[in-house]
Q: What sequence folds into this?
């Protein structure tokens, strides 16, 4: 059973820009189909923002662009003032992204997976040695630390992936459907992590079909549909609702299935 | 530079650990390589002279065929539950990631060579012990060049549907000069290098390695990024 309160260490790099994340007229095409069609948003540092919307709304694509996994087709995206295309490595130093896949190695134990991540995240050896047991404890995997991940359930793998996210002490956390595959305890763990990150000033952007699971932690919410922002509520985020300059561009009309005009 | 080295070593170590725990990158490919050599032997017949003459070429063909499987599987391990994507998310140089996977591929190739060389000696009745030093050097250079090429192509094709067919089609033409030089170096090593050619063939192998490592490091990022 994970602890009821999680005290997270502050991020390794404090955000320096006035906005944690900025996307400007962002469009992302896959072939002739537009996953994002001109989204403009600005998120304040230290906020927890929920991204909601039906399947295919563009939530995952938006997070993947901010995580540097996808390049914008049009427009721009930046984290802490750093463009995701031209300053990708610096962005990766600040961002942690947890997608549907956990990115864990089944042949390694939970502890070994975290050790590998610590090296990749350039954590000092002493810090890694001290923090890995703490992280395993925090995500309720202390007893399974030396078991191979291949025997873990989907929920345990998810917990370990959340543990890896904690380990890197990121400034911005991007979570794509963090409640997927988790049991009631796991969902509480996500809630405690979100509260913990907020307490230490980490910005969290959460794509979820179940925004109600985020509870009071979410400062604001952005609804997306068909690659466009349909509504912005709450605090900590502002942007353009509806079509932006990019989505009015004749270049994008075939992808949106509309005529330029 | 020190950071890149640590990243490459951690990645190669991770692959080694997974391999020791029952991955099949080397285990089954070793068996495959040995079977290939055995079947080539059957196809050539019992003529001892013919077998000995064909031994260098068949050894390297077996190493290349088995190596394609081994390096391909090392990369396949990264597709498990989005591991390759997670690697791309780490704030590390793409050159270091390439180096790590190439070191793991190189190690797998060395294991293949170390096992298949005695198999060749046994099946084709060639005296590898007498030419051990030049053969080891040839194996080191050949394994490095092959790992440099195959690691890059394995990553570039990892998400493609017809990957199993595509990987050999892409790698084999590129490693043709390596195959030629490695076979020649092995042949002259086994013959005692009567005309002093060994240095030139090893030099060609070394030049190929350097060229392919540079090309691989420059292109590996395309396998990780959109």
A:
């Amino acid at each position: 059973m994970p602890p009821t309160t999680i005290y997270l260490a502050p991020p390794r790099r404090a955000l320096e820009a006035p906005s944690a994340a900025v996307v400007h007229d962002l469009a992302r095409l896959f072939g002739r189909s537009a996953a994002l069609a001109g989204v403009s948003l600005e998120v304040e540092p230290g906020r927890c923002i929920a991204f909601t919307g039906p399947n295919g709304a563009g939530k995952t694509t938006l997070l993947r662009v901010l995580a540097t996994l996808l390049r914008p087709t049009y427009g721009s995206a930046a984290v802490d003032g750093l463009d995701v295309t031209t300053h990708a490595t610096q962005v990766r130093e600040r961002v942690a992204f947890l997608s549907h896949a956990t990115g864990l190695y089944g042949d390694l134990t939970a502890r070994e997976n975290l050790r590998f991540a610590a090296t990749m995240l350039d954590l000092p050896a002493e810090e890694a040695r001290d923090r890995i047991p703490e992280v395993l404890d925090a995500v309720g995997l202390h007893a399974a630390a030396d078991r191979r991940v291949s025997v873990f359930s989907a929920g345990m793998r998810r917990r370990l992936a959340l543990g890896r996210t904690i380990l890197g002490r990121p400034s911005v956390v991007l979570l794509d459907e963090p409640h997927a595959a988790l049991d009631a305890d796991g969902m509480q763990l996500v809630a405690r992590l979100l509260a913990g990150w907020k307490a230490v000033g980490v910005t969290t952007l959460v794509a979820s079909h179940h925004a109600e699971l985020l509870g009071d932690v979410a400062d604001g919410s952005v609804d997306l549909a068909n690659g466009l922002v349909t509504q912005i509520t709450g605090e900590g985020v502002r942007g353009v609702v509806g079509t932006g300059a990019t989505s009015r561009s004749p270049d994008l009309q075939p992808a949106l299935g509309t005529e330029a005009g | 530079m020190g950071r890149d080295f640590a990243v490459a070593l951690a990645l190669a170590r991770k692959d080694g650990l997974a391999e020791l725990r029952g991955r099949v990158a080397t285990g089954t490919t070793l068996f495959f390589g040995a079977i290939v050599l055995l079947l080539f032997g059957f196809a050539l017949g019992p003529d001892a002279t013919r077998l000995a003459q064909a031994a260098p070429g068949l050894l390297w063909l077996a190493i290349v065929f088995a190596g394609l499987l081994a390096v391909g599987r090392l990369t396949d391990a990264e597709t498990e539950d989005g591991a390759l994507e997670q690697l791309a998310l780490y704030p590390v140089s793409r050159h270091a990631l390439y180096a790590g996977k190439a070191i793991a591929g190189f190690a797998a190739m060395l294991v293949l060579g170390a096992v298949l060389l005695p198999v060749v000696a046994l099946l084709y009745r060639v005296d590898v012990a007498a030419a051990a030093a030049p053969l080891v050097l040839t194996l080191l250079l050949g394994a490095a060049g092959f790992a440099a090429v195959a690691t890059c192509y394995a990553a570039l094709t990892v998400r493609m549907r017809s990957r199993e067919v595509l990987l050999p089609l892409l790698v084999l033409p590129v490693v043709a000069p390596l195959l030629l030089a490695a076979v020649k170096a092995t042949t002259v090593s086994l013959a005692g290098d009567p005309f002093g050619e060994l240095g030139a063939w090893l030099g060609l192998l070394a030049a190929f390695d350097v060229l392919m490592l540079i090309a691989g490091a420059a292109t590996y990022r395309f396998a990780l990024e959109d």
Notes: Chain B touches chain A at residues 3, 6-7, 10, 14, 17-18, 21-23, 77, 80-83, 85-93, 225-226 (CB under 8 Å). The mean pLDDT of chain B is 92. The CA atoms of residues 61 and 179 of chain B lie 8 Å apart. Residues 94-124 of chain B form the longest helix (31 residues).
